[in-house]
Specification:
- This protein is α+β, with helices and mostly antiparallel strands.
- It has a single domain, classed as Cytochrome p450.
- The protein contains 18 helices and ten strands.
- The strands form three sheets. A five-stranded mixed sheet has the order 1-2-8-5-3, sandwiched between helices.
- Helix 10 packs across helix 11 and helix 14 crosses helix 18.
- It is globular, with a radius of gyration of 21 Å.
- Bound molecules: protoporphyrin IX containing FE.
- Protoporphyrin IX containing FE binds next to helix 5, helix 13, helix 14 and helix 18.
């Protein structure tokens, strides 16, 4: 079994799972032509995520040749996700301190109202009997919820989605010149926008119970520099946007493809509480992560030199038969379900409870309101790092 991430085979983004299965069976640790390695088994990802000494998240050496001295380089190398201790530890403490369970819980009422109003208006977007639910439903939710998290005025939220897509798009393995320009422009525009917002908020602080920007600026857990504040706010907006859109879209697609599981969910709406983790495992929104070795390491009998880039295939690890019974079965009652969709160790997703809440409410209410829905046609996004639909056309009943 072979996979070159720089040249994935035809149909890979449509259905990567047969290839992942082959990697798990025949090439769990696989060298790439550029010297990097693909790592698929669950136990190795778990080990790598926990060991920040030997497996670094610091991306200076990888991103410098990719982006040169550019806004994209500054953005990515200032974000906590691409740093190691001590910077990571200090920034994470402040960020995690701002995203408290009570701040997240306070978003629930707004989320319920938003989802109800989006569902109500869905029939207005019918074209030839079907509604494109990524554009008119799934992608609308995270932008507004994260907008609420930072108390961004509603009429200023429009550009957030495109900025976010351009910045994250520039992380792809095969970055086009157009993609690089769009990514750099998005960082500049986004930073300027947030700088103005932060200056205004410093003079007029918001309610620290609900406004995460105010909590970050006036944190009792330490102080962020202006660059750290702006780039990490951008990172939160990006981190929570495409991933959550994909969670909702992938869930709707998977439920449609499994009529018996769909019937179970309609009959027992509380099933959504375990179902959300099966959505995340079965079609993980974030398929790939990366780490850099800081010393020579031995993984599954392979000697890997220091300074080697590792691609951690979350989508494969979450279907590893050594960890999950019947891993290709979509089972909404699966328990335990200790998937790695939110990674693990010190960099585990800070927004996991918010993402789960959005997934449960959006998908649960969608199915409750349109139980007769079915997918008419769909198109998968070509991105390897993020798994989601670029289009999902649904007949509502
Ligand atoms: C379904 C939705 C989501 C998925 C699948 C997801 C997945 C992930 C993954 C895999 C990581 C680890 C990256 C790495 O270290 O390699 C991560 C980190 C992170 N996520 Fe999420 N995420 C989601 C939603 C969110 C949301 C809603 C937020 C915030 C509003 C968020 C904020 C973060 C932050 C701040 C980090 C960096 C943590 C650190 O480096 O210490 N994520 N996420």
């Amino acid at each position: 079994m072979y996979l070159d991430l720089a040249r994935p085979p035809e149909g890979f983004t449509e259905n990567p799972y047969p290839i992942y299965r082959g990697l798990l069976q025949e090439a769990p640790v696989l060298a790439q032509p550029d010297g990097s390695y693909l790592i698929s088994p669950y136990h190795l990802l778990e080990l790598i995520y926990r060991d920040t000494d030997r497996f670094s998240s610091d991306k200076q050496t990888v991103f410098k040749p990719k982006y040169g001295d550019s806004p994209l380089l500054e953005h990515h190398t200032t974000s906590l996700v691409f740093n190691d201790p001590p910077l990571h530890t200090r920034v994470r403490k402040i960020m995690a301190g701002a995203m408290t369970p009570s701040a997240i819980a306070k978003l629930e009422t707004g989320l319920l109202i938003l989802v109800d109003s989006l569902l109500e208006s869905l029939p207005d977007f019918r074209v030839n009997g079907a509604v494109e639910v990524i554009k008119h439903f799934a992608s609308r939710i995270p932008v507004h919820i994260i907008g609420n998290l930072f108390d961004i005025p509603i009429d200023e939220r429009e550009p957030l989605r495109d900025w976010s897509l351009s910045i994250l798009g520039a992380l792809e393995h095969n970055l086009s010149p157009g993609g690089e320009i769009a990514g750099n422009n998005a960082v500049v525009e986004f930073t300027n926008y947030l700088d103005d917002l932060a200056k205004h908020r410093r003079k007029n602080p918001g309610n620290p119970d609900t406004d995460v920007l105010t909590r970050l600026m006036f944190s009792d857990k330490g102080e962020l520099s202006t660059a750290e504040l702006l780039h990490n706010c951008i990172f939160i907006l990006n981190a929570g946007h495409e991933t959550t859109t994909n969670l909702i879209g992938n869930a709707i697609g998977a439920v449609d493809a499994h009529p018996q599981q769909k019937a179970n969910l309609i009959e027992n709406p509380d099933l959504i509480n375990t179902a959300v983790d099966e959505f995340l495992r079965f079609e993980s929104p974030n398929q790939l992560g990366n780490r850099l070795t800081t010393c020579d390491v031995e993984l599954d009998g392979h000697h890997i030199p220091s300074q080697t880039n590792l691609h951690l295939i979350i989508g494969a690890a979450n279907r590893d038969p050594q960890k999950f019974d019947n891993p290709d079965k979509f089972n909404l009652r699966r328990k335990p379900n200790r998937h790695l969709a939110f990674a693990g160790g010190p960099h585990a997703c800070i927004g996991l409870n918010l993402a789960r809440l959005e997934g449960k409410i959006a998908v649960g209410k969608f199915i409750n309101q349109y139980p007769g829905f079915n997918v008419v046609s769909s198109k998968r996004s070509e991105r390897l790092r993020f798994r989601g639909y670029s289009e999902l056309h649904i007949a509502l009943d």
